[in-house]
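so my prof wants the structure for this chain in the tokens format not the other one, which i didnt know existed until like an hour ago. anyway here's the sequence
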Amino acid sequence: MNKKLRAIDLTMVGVFVALMAIGANITSFVPFMVIGGVPITLQTFFAILAGVILGSRLGAIALTVYTFVGLVGVPVFAQFGGGFATIVKPTFGFIVSYILVAYVCGKIVEKKQSLPTFITAALVGLVINYVLGTNLMYYAYKFWASAPEGFTYKMAWMWMVVPLPKDIILAVFAGILAHRLEKTVLSKGQFKHMKRVS
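here's what i got, hopefully its the right format
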């Protein structure tokens, strides 16, 4: 297969880098999306969409570009963060997980384009995000970051209970939305072969 990136591919990579930056800081644009002091970010939602819409290769490229853009200092991470110092922050594991999320979600839907497959891919992506991100956060706090008093592995997972319902709902919605787009916009014109570039 042709491995060259076309203009439409590069454009979609740029779109998802921008969407990830917006998703990371959505509460800065929409303050009411803070519920009970917990910000509702959309990074996982857009990482899943990148995979199921762009496919495994292009989705992973988009999220890799997003990560590097943030590491070189562009404020695209949560709370308008950026810079190489981000790599030692406890939450960096979640950022790294987005690349794998996009890749795996893309791989799943490349095999079959049914609605259940899209939803399954989205939920698998969510599990990857939580497992990788939470475990790396735990080890970061244990080995180099300043852990809260009495911090345990169980506490790390308890923190993730708060955003979990929101993320499950958004993951299912991402699967439904992407399937709908696949049957309409993405199956036509210059989008038609986007996922098949590998």
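also thought this was worth mentioning. The chain has one domain: 7-191.
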